[in-house]
């Protein structure tokens, strides 16, 4: 099974994956308050921009590559997509 097929099975669209990843990035940013210099460095260095640029496409390509190379299996991907599906449902009530 491919990542695209699994996304279809979980009724996920690219925007849902972007939302799911945005939750993780927001949590990362919120973890910086204790280290303001590190947050400034993270933004200034372009690391934030790099992480956000096409993040959902890179993420899905990486998952597919890991699956193709047997680094991860379908059940791991399903667990991730269940979380993404739940985030998409919660997003509708956001």
Plain-language structure description:
This is Putative membrane protein. It is built from six helices and no strands. It has helices at about 5-10, 15-30, 35-45, 45-50, 55-70, 75-90.
Tags for this entry?
0% strand; 94 residues; mainly alpha
What would you say about this model in short?
The protein is mostly helical and 94 residues long. 77% of the residues lie in helices and 0% in strands.
**What is the mean pLDDT?**
94
Low-confidence stretches: none
Please tell me how large the radius of gyration is. Answer: 15 Å
Shape by Cα distribution: globular
Let me know the number of strands: 0
Structure class: mainly alpha
Largest sheet: none
The quaternary state of the protein chains shown equals single chain
Distance between the termini: 32 Å
Total discrete domains: 1
- Our estimate of the beta-strand percent is under 5%
- Write the element-wise H/E pattern from the N-terminal end onward: HHHHHH
Protein name: Putative membrane protein
What's the layout of helices and strands?
Layout lengths: L2 H7 L4 H17 L5 H9 L2 H6 L2 H14 L5 H19 L2
